[in-house]
Amino acid sequence: MIHEHGLECRDLLGNLSEFIDGGLDDETCEKLRSHMSGCENCRLVFDTTTRTIYLYQTVANETALPEDVRGRLFNTLKLDDLIKPTRRAHES
Amino acid sequence: METVAEFSLELLRAGDRVEFARLVESFSVSIYRLALQMLGNQQDAEDVLQITFVKAFQHLGEFEGRSSLSTWLYRVATNEALMLMRRKDASVSLDEEKSDDEGDSFQPHELADWTKLPEGDLLDVEARTQLEKAIRSLPVRLRAVFLMRDIEGLSIRDTGEALGLTETAVKTRLLRARLQLREKLSAYFGERLRQENKK
User: Fold this and answer.
1) Under a CB-based contact definition with an 8 Å cutoff, are residues B140 and B94 in contact?
2) Cβ pair B114:A48 closer than 8 A
3) What structural domains and CATH numbers belong to chain B?
4) Chain B partners of A90 at a C-beta cutoff of 8 Å?
5) Domain ranges in chain A?
6) Mean pLDDT of the B135-142 span
7) Do B46 and A44 touch (CB under 8 A)?
8) What would the pLDDT profile of B155-172 be if each residue is shown by its tens digit?
9) Tens-place pLDDT, residues B181-191
């Protein structure tokens, strides 16, 4: 399905990133919100874009530095004596 | 993404090992994550991580403090990741391409409302594979901006400094990266939604 974009739809798309990041003035935000309340496709693009970012952030937050990689890093930097135990290693 | 403690530039420039170890502790996860997402390979990510901090230690004396320490580290890491990528594919570049001009006319085509799918479905093993596949398919000039801005939480300005881009270029590429990822995920989750509805 291809959404035929009118002027306001183009405005939303052009401002989408700054709208998501909270970088727009109140008046522009209100205009975009008002447009989305009557334009299902634009609301959908906004919702799915924010959800896309959220999913990548959630997965990234789970990324840890593997213990062996951390150990080799401190070894390469000759900082072995200053390596702190990670919480997991500390608990075990 | 995370709050980073302040560091003493004076101690770092003087080669203080304790302060440098503190810097490594604070940034190693972020640098590793960035390299892993840029390169998609754990060994390459580890190489970039090590080279970044070796270079940081060697060149901290020259760090003028015009950008933040984190931005400087991200810049070193990105340059190393790009060099590694170029060794495998000489055409890899952060530079603009003709297709960049088409960015503002990018139109969303996939309009399935998959946001109501349960979080367990959105983040299951199959979905994670698709997330990985989608980001790896982004051109590196878009991927780097998305990772810096949306994953590592750098400001538009700092992202520009780290990648040697103007703020306008960062904004254009960020929008394009977000919309392209959205499009790819919408195609995948939309299909899953249709399968769910058939049941």
Assistant:
1) yes
2) yes
3) 9-88 (1.10.1740.10), 98-198 (1.10.10.10)
4) none
5) 7-84
6) 94
7) no
8) 999 999 999 999 999 999
9) 999 999 999 99
Scan for tokens 């952060």, then name that residue: B94
Among B25, B50, B123, select the one facing A55 at the smallest CB separation: B123
**Cβ–Cβ under 8 Å, residues B95 and B55:** no
Residues of A with CB under 8 A from a CB of B: 1-3, 5, 13-14, 16-18, 20, 41, 44-45, 47-49, 51-53, 55-61, 63-66, 69-70, 72-74, 76-77, 79, 82-84
With residue A60 as reference, give the H or E element that holds it: helix A40-61
- Per-residue tokens: B119: 């979080």
Instruction: Give the 3-state secondary structure of residue A39.
Output: coil
- Judged on CB neighbours under 10 Å (0-12, 13-18, 19+), B80 is buried
Q: Residue B78 above 50 pLDDT?
A: yes
- Distance of alpha carbon A46 from alpha carbon A16, whole angstroms: 7
Can you read off the two tokens belonging to residue A16?
């989408």
For position B95, what pLDDT does the model report?
A: 75
